[in-house]
## 1
Amino acid sequence: MTGVTVGGETIALDNGLRLDTLQMYDYDIRDLKKVNGDDLIRLDVIPEANRLRNVRAQIVSHGHLDHIGAIPFTKPKAPILSTPYPIEIVRREYRGGDLYGVEFNEEFSISKRTKVEFIRVTHSIPETSLVLLKTDEGNVVYACDYKLDDYCNLEKTDYRKVRRTGRDGVKLLIVESTRVNVAGKTPPETVVRSKLEDVLHFIEGGLMVATTFSSHIERIQTILDEVEKVGRTPLILGHSMMNNIELAERFGYLELPPNAKVCGDPKRINQALGEVMKKRDEYFVLTTGHQAEPQSVLVRMLENNFRFRFQKGDSLLFCANVIPVPLNIAYRSVLESKLQARGVRIFRDIHVSGHASKEDHRKLLRMLQPEHVLPCHGSIEQRSGWVALASEEGYELNRNIHLINNGQTTSI
Amino acid sequence: MTGVTVGGETIALDNGLRLDTLQMYDYDIRDLKKVNGDDLIRLDVIPEANRLRNVRAQIVSHGHLDHIGAIPFTKPKAPILSTPYPIEIVRREYRGGDLYGVEFNEEFSISKRTKVEFIRVTHSIPETSLVLLKTDEGNVVYACDYKLDDYCNLEKTDYRKVRRTGRDGVKLLIVESTRVNVAGKTPPETVVRSKLEDVLHFIEGGLMVATTFSSHIERIQTILDEVEKVGRTPLILGHSMMNNIELAERFGYLELPPNAKVCGDPKRINQALGEVMKKRDEYFVLTTGHQAEPQSVLVRMLENNFRFRFQKGDSLLFCANVIPVPLNIAYRSVLESKLQARGVRIFRDIHVSGHASKEDHRKLLRMLQPEHVLPCHGSIEQRSGWVALASEEGYELNRNIHLINNGQTTSI
Amino acid sequence: MTGVTVGGETIALDNGLRLDTLQMYDYDIRDLKKVNGDDLIRLDVIPEANRLRNVRAQIVSHGHLDHIGAIPFTKPKAPILSTPYPIEIVRREYRGGDLYGVEFNEEFSISKRTKVEFIRVTHSIPETSLVLLKTDEGNVVYACDYKLDDYCNLEKTDYRKVRRTGRDGVKLLIVESTRVNVAGKTPPETVVRSKLEDVLHFIEGGLMVATTFSSHIERIQTILDEVEKVGRTPLILGHSMMNNIELAERFGYLELPPNAKVCGDPKRINQALGEVMKKRDEYFVLTTGHQAEPQSVLVRMLENNFRFRFQKGDSLLFCANVIPVPLNIAYRSVLESKLQARGVRIFRDIHVSGHASKEDHRKLLRMLQPEHVLPCHGSIEQRSGWVALASEEGYELNRNIHLINNGQTTSI
Amino acid sequence: MTGVTVGGETIALDNGLRLDTLQMYDYDIRDLKKVNGDDLIRLDVIPEANRLRNVRAQIVSHGHLDHIGAIPFTKPKAPILSTPYPIEIVRREYRGGDLYGVEFNEEFSISKRTKVEFIRVTHSIPETSLVLLKTDEGNVVYACDYKLDDYCNLEKTDYRKVRRTGRDGVKLLIVESTRVNVAGKTPPETVVRSKLEDVLHFIEGGLMVATTFSSHIERIQTILDEVEKVGRTPLILGHSMMNNIELAERFGYLELPPNAKVCGDPKRINQALGEVMKKRDEYFVLTTGHQAEPQSVLVRMLENNFRFRFQKGDSLLFCANVIPVPLNIAYRSVLESKLQARGVRIFRDIHVSGHASKEDHRKLLRMLQPEHVLPCHGSIEQRSGWVALASEEGYELNRNIHLINNGQTTSI
């Protein structure tokens, strides 16, 4: 969560959960609502939202949990603004808010001093925005979580608007740092397509199970498209898959093939998997669980919670990578060991990242030409990578590129 | 180099240089001919060929230096057999031999006891073979260096012939191990296409320089195809590029776009780079040097040996990875540091391996159903990976999957 | 578990649990007795003991769980033989057996054909043996788990006996492989003393907590000796610590300082920690939990299960390393993160391994001069390291150094 | 090189070479004097010294090349100040300067405004100082390169003076960052002693060769002490060893055993190695070359430049680690491969670092209680580690802990 204060008014940008910390303390997200909010603040799981004074709007850049998940706990009183799709995701988690869906490129007045516009950009969930705040003291762009994927099959980054914003002048760019230390640019979704097409034609028999993020609609579409080519029936299993797919279909971001089946509740999953056991060569299961989340359908399939057993010759396609913290790495490693003990073949890394690499960031920087840069969303090592990049482009540390830690403020 | 002995007659399979050892002792391959052969044997750079008795044929599976490079030193007296393209590569290095170009799937009699056939398979150089030896005591398949890339734009693995060979019975499979410990299958060349198309459209100005193996004709074609789409003029620089391209064009494995220029000698390279300095946005340079080989054109471009300077905003596309031994890693790291010091942007990993991963190997094993497996071309860790894979498929160590070290023999 | 069969009689060597697999399936060792033995075999947690026919003795080389832990499940009918200290450890776990404590260097007749002797060697638990089997067909030495630490403060390797055994002739050496790929020799316990002395004098205030294996009596003595020098009161907490200390004191392997307190049950631990809260500068807590085992006292201290809170300025000394599998690495990383969140300072790596490195193994090989070597206790990569070492010493793979997988047999 | 400017006067602190960059461009330090100074600045090998205006003193904290090596190139006009031992090292490299040897704890007036004192601290070369600048605007402590080794056999950190300095008030601490991200404290030299004693008693025959830094007098003493216990004759080979040993003996920092022989020039080295070849079990060779520097005696021994051959059964003791940049890692790896090819046994890591770890730094911070902290000597990741540490101790980024890049200035 980031606050931008101009003339005594504050705009809050995003309001998320720290998922790695949550996991360290063994909290299940679904049980989280029973936990005391102060405890969550103390454990650094949710932001200390009331440190921000006179908040006039809670803006949401996109619908990932680490950007919206704290809203049900911090219960913002200010209006919550985003484009329509993320607003629906917030609504699912938090019914009490004052929610506004704003169209891309539509100027929305927050107060006399401040207006906001949402600029379309690619990421790994539909309707991600570069947030443009227009204030008395200049424009602020908030670019927290994006990549520049010109081969995205879902949306296109609005380069014209980005360049125009740069020409109009940007006082400050607040920007994510996750992969700024990775050379080159983040590969496009077409790489996933190429890998997937290859693997699907290569595998000759047995059940195929793929796992990815339920919110990654573009990836789900990629998978379903490629499955259609090999003629298997797609079964999409699990509540979060079902919810995200329903929403994406409603907004026109996803088109299911006619033979696809979506099962949310355990009983229907059980039934579907019973069918699979009879004709495993004809089905393709898509579900969550690539980080071995204990409640995921994949883990429950493996633990024999359904009328289903993995068999020698089945295949598991990991269409998402784990977030590389030690617990995830370990859980994933155990998951793979158990699958291999059943004779399941593993196909990893059918995935590309949703985060900008060094050259994506350089392009954004050149398009926006901001007076100041404030890297965020990353360890200090990652944010330091932004200092190196900006230095190559003529910025200077502490003059116009700034490093601040969580909980700190700076004035420019 | 592997020898297969049946009834007192030996067939030699490949005859290569250990490139990593060479490099450790600072030998330049071009000066190697001055070095004493016995010294090269002592240093473990070339095989001790005369340990093989009564050699009736020297077979070559493909034209990489680690498979043919020792031929000029060991000077085989037996006929040298391969398909026509690798035979031409051998001829360039060694004029003295008794060379035979044999067509794919044509049975060639080596002796009364032994016949050979070459089966087409994909790898990272044209005309790579699975070598099928038909002997009195059963058939032997030698699969040293291959991948199963069904999206290769150059050749197709002859699956029909492979399966028929399996049905006819295979006594022994001798097979490479480089990547058998890597899960899944090796990605296809289409992944390189997707990445390259993305990067070429992404970069807005400055000179683009790409580097890859001069023998990797398929990759060169991929690069030239994508360059054509963005309208730059390709300049292909260096002797080894020129020689390989000439050969590949002659055999119809490569089609240069009409505006491509190929320059082999330093004077012409210098001239061409002079042109580049004037209109760097219009050119695309393709050359060798991704392992920072000191004689490569790329390194000489960087060391200012030509009428050329890298400039801020130029881009370097690494369309090949280094062989991961410490010296290569270090030299590559120094190369990148020097490029970055000039302001050159680095795009890495526009590459897929030419070696089979675990699932490619499993498929070959299932198609061939050999009685025995002998992993080779790899460290003992890598060869042990083959033991693990074969055990999953019902083989048992020391019974029908065998581990032997360099210099050892085994009987089956 | 290893079986040596001579003339139709089998000697079983060790009989342990696979701890990493156990952990993967979330079993608590203390609940294990409720689990079905066949399930444990299927999961590869305990050996399939009844594959060995006509077992005449169950020999135990030392008291670690991965060498004795399966005895309560496989319930050997043959007599269980070891030196007195490990026999007492087995007795704690399994009361039903026919247990014999044999003194070091005493020849014990198992049958007409076979005698056994135990030769003292250093490791990380008292009374570890090189097991010498004297059979009709020659002598077998079983060296599974040892190091050569000539600065051990507890015991000395019986080099004279080892060399004499070598001179008498050894047909087969069965030997562990855990660290054969590590160059040099394993450092001695004096390195731990030097580090510990330094750290204990360096820390100026706050509570000190050290954690190590409860079975590592030598390490416990090292720690208590150094704590005595800085004048703090040692508190030793936890059941397994108490049990091991009692046994070691009874056998004269450990001498507690007069002011040391040992508390096994939660109530007494709670009381002792209450005292610590009042004068934390005066105490030194020694306990288990360096792998973040959920039931360990350290983890319960951290989870506030006692009348105790960690405070800023406390120190945690890790006097043992985790076994480097992903789950352990992850749990340890979470443990450290939680400690650091409380302001606890971390001192890692006050530890040396208990396993022989490459040069320890070379020395054993040279002393014993066995006709054959069979590496065990290690992945195939680790066992392959033994092949490399033995090759340096003139052995040859498949002739007199052998690689076999779990479940396999070989004849020599 | 760091400049501290108060009231228009600047004090320059250290003036070193970037050794990793030098190596990247293949410069030999001994040939460096032929290279143009501007080229060295452009390559970022020496600092751009004339950016500092009105320099009143060039202070040297200790005698390592990365702290003094640029002095012969930048030729400071201001007086060069240090304690007597480093001053002699500077004199060896640069005869033209105005050199002053100042005793520890003696206040030396640089100008009306500024005085300097040198405070003794432990590191890996004799007479390393914490530099205390007393200025009109407060005291500055420069702590660039130190560790807190209370078991150093050469010198003791002057804790009393450090604490008194803290009580007198410190405006700014400029401090190195090399290992601030390493938990715990840096182990003491006694750890090296324990390892060395163990290894020397363990090895039974063959020549022993140890390699370390020629400037690391304490390590050389440790080695010679332990060699004396096993009764071998120490041969110390090479010019830099000889020069450093002469200086250290003159200052009383080193005492050679009576039977030690020191040989500087190639002819005498050759003679001595001739003797070694006759009785290799009786000698112990100490020399440089652990980073495989091509001119080192070790590398020349291996390349057969002397009347000497390594033999199977010889041992190489690495009593220093490589600086972990890719080139060093690669060269060291090649060195070890070549030694192993000759049958030489490798003993690594008989070494402890000379740089403070996180807890050493915390102790210094607590003793000095500076108003501001400026981390230097390290990558931005390493300096960021100082931000994390200082934050734990109540400092705040950009308020009283500052990150600046090379070439930048900040005011406090």
Note: The two ends of chain D are 19 Å apart (CA to CA).
## 2
Amino acid sequence: MSSNAPRHIRLTSHPEPQAHRWPLRWAAPTAAERGPVIGSVTRPADRNVIGTHGGSYSLYRALAVSAGTLSPLQRPDLANTQPVTDIGPYPQWSEPGKIVSLDPWGHVVGEAFGDAIGEGIDIRPTIAITKARLNMAELNALIEAGSLQPDGRVLHRGGDVSVTKAAIDPVWWLPGIAERFGTSEHELRRTLFEQTAGMYPELVTRPDLAVFLPPVGGITVYIFGEPHDLANRKVPLTCRVHDECNGSDVFGSDICTCRPYLIQGIEESIRSAQDGGVGLVVYNRKEGRALGEVTKFLVYNARKRQEGGDQAATYFERTECVAGVQDARFQQLMPDVLHWLGITKIHRLISMSNMKYEAMVDQGIDIGERVPIPADRIPLDASVEMEAKKAAGYFAPDAPTEAELARTIGRPMDSM
Amino acid sequence: MSSNAPRHIRLTSHPEPQAHRWPLRWAAPTAAERGPVIGSVTRPADRNVIGTHGGSYSLYRALAVSAGTLSPLQRPDLANTQPVTDIGPYPQWSEPGKIVSLDPWGHVVGEAFGDAIGEGIDIRPTIAITKARLNMAELNALIEAGSLQPDGRVLHRGGDVSVTKAAIDPVWWLPGIAERFGTSEHELRRTLFEQTAGMYPELVTRPDLAVFLPPVGGITVYIFGEPHDLANRKVPLTCRVHDECNGSDVFGSDICTCRPYLIQGIEESIRSAQDGGVGLVVYNRKEGRALGEVTKFLVYNARKRQEGGDQAATYFERTECVAGVQDARFQQLMPDVLHWLGITKIHRLISMSNMKYEAMVDQGIDIGERVPIPADRIPLDASVEMEAKKAAGYFAPDAPTEAELARTIGRPMDSM
């Protein structure tokens, strides 16, 4: 541990004397009026939020400090890290209640609060925007089959795809989160505290701090074509909002449609950008319906072993038995990132999810066509999930009957 | 919120009267002597750890309770969720200091503590083991090219791969973690508390609680072939230990070798299992060197924009400027999962990382051959990372000279 580490434990449950210097006025029209989000641990007196930067990764920073490889007083050198493209400001940024789970000014802190940073205030970006080239085996196969054509701008010969991408850490404005979930801020704070077994007592002791940097996963946004076009209703926008599924997205597990539907989202986004439109894939870190992978694998076992086998008819019931809830992804917060990008209309939504669709419509975003996954892209063992979801309200031209539902049985455990 | 929710806020910073009923004796030889890990929020009196189950996902459970869709008193119905295969017990489970970051009994709680669970104690698995079929475009291409042959057991016609997989949530035994990082338990607890801006005051107020369920990502293990063979030194074991990189693992970004090396690990694991051996891929949720994706994208921008372009010679420097540390993955804890699986020898390690290698050797695991990624699988823009790592000690037959290092320049930002 560095020798200049503070030697007394700082209590966080009582206001620091200077906390008033950096008030946050959520949804104010400019960055200056809104004020900077300060989650620094190097100058606690400046803090105006609960929690700290980097979500879960703050625990790894703590290990780095423990191991003596990171100074506890370290601050980022932000030279050359600024966004590769402008995003906003858009009117949605200051419409009350539109954005409650991320900081719309999170990518421009160097520009908006440069003077304060120069003065020594530890203000950090919660959003980073860069460019990348992607190369995916499935897209290469589509090029080879003649189904995708390189154009030299979006899709290159050899299969490279040019994208602009943004990583977004969660920044929760607690009054807005409570409203979105139909509860009071007081109840929300108390439940967050109790259900995490006491993480951040400030949730209940510091009602003056309304912003929380929760240690949960963030969002990655992939933009195909011109980022500014996302906010232009006249430019056709193809969009997939995808929730993380490591087992399929990375390892190609055939029990769900996650990676095939993600590929379809990327493919259609490329086509849209090639045809004068724009494409967007939003990737939310919400593994296993935001219940985590341990719960997910427990549910797989319960599904495969139940009497009658892995049935579409009992698909949601098994998750509810193990987790107490069918799904914890809560699409209510998902449209925030669309508001951040200035989106008011999605011309083609690559999703069958009624929850995603309704969350977008509730937030005032117009949706044109909804595009199902083609039957020939549904992996063998994923029909159980697909039929169960259709029966539960997923958008589909052909919702199954109860008899069909009962007949849809997945692969038994002993032939995995 | 359910009507039977407790109406007073429970303080967690003072011992509950019955806490002594479930003492934890870490590394005890049997599950009964070790005692159950109880992170329940439904009966706080039984708790014997700091934090709660599900890592980060406890915050989503809290949102589910806030939204009224999950009872705050819910407990899992574990019927049919038990592991699909035995793992252990192995001697490593009770050797002091061998396993400090997961609960080796985490998958057998239903069996080991069934009586207590029946009595109403809320004991939950921290590990789940299931089976799966994988299907990946890259493997299908290798089959088509004749480089992989289906055998009907490990690799099926049509490209399906049979695996056993386990999801593992972190369970940190703080005295052991401190020892692994060369610090005192007192300093570790204090640093975890301070660097997270005050997450879990019990870290500093409750020295009697030595186990912490941190809200960080876990581990997924993919086993190719017979799981019991992992612990048999005579059965050839091919292994890749892979740290998460969403940009490459899922989206195929060409700035690093992550997905190509992961595919190689899977491919070689399949070959090993087909040849009478066994294969293992360990996937650690440590995005962006455990610094997170926002930091990663900031570093990409700083690399591409620095004077002289994206150079291998300054590769590590750029991360250190932004994050204060080159890498926060800390392979010191990584071998725990290998001990859990009973592994004492890895015949073929599909990795060039000196940090992973040294961590394994330090933990008494014998390593045979180390297998580099073939040059023709390194994506175009990833040579910067690869040459920088070789120069820094990565295993390679051909470490670059300083002049070669200076000549390795990546794609400039304006031609992304």
Note: Chain A touches chain B through 140 residues (CB under 8 Å).
